[in-house]
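#struct-pred

JT: dropping the chains for the assembly here, can someone run the whole complex?
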Amino acid sequence: DTAVSQTPKYLVTQMGNDKSIKCEQNLGHDTMYWYKQDSKKFLKIMFSYNNKELIINETVPNRFSPKSPDKAHLNLHINSLELGDSAVYFCASSQDLYPEAFFGQGTRLTVV
Amino acid sequence: AQKVTQAQTEISVVEKEDVTLDCVYETRDTTYYLFWYKQPPSGELVFLIRRNSFDEQNEISGRYSWNFQKSTSSFNFTITASQVVDSAVYFCALSEEGGFGNEKLTFGTGTRLTIIP
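RK: done, full complex below.
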């Protein structure tokens, strides 16, 4: 069973479109995250949720809106996609008191 | 602010050689956590190890070992008798104490390790 799973794995879309990435974890963790990995492989946190509550919101454009319907799911919706949004987006989860995050396989987003 | 520096951008070694990946960190917190992650060519991020700031014991797991030294703010990773499957990008990361969603990983820029058969 996959612990943290994201869909889709690849996403190619045109500028200006709106798209969503879904993430689910079956580890029973309380916290979920979105990280972005740019073309130079640099990883940076975007958001974190703890039990459906937004905790970390880094300086991310308002076009990015996370949603956590329950603590096992965290989705990322992106409006009006721009070329600069092209990256790999990783979902992750961790358990309270155990700070190591477990990552999904990533979603490679390409905006053309 | 916290910072992680991996000065080695790329390393290539011949199979069966030992290799050490360096990691230097900066933080103002007295309680923090250090991590290593592996990103193989397939792209996923694999958790390898976590060390707590109050535990400076070195750790060995098979061919992998980690050397944590607070005096030099370093958390280095050694692979002994390297194998082709070790080829990957390795990230060192730091998290300050938070809890309940406040732990965010600050990653280094990664070291691309290539093992030559």
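JT: nice. The CA atoms of residues 14 and 116 of chain B lie 5 Å apart. The longest strand of chain B covers residues 88-96.
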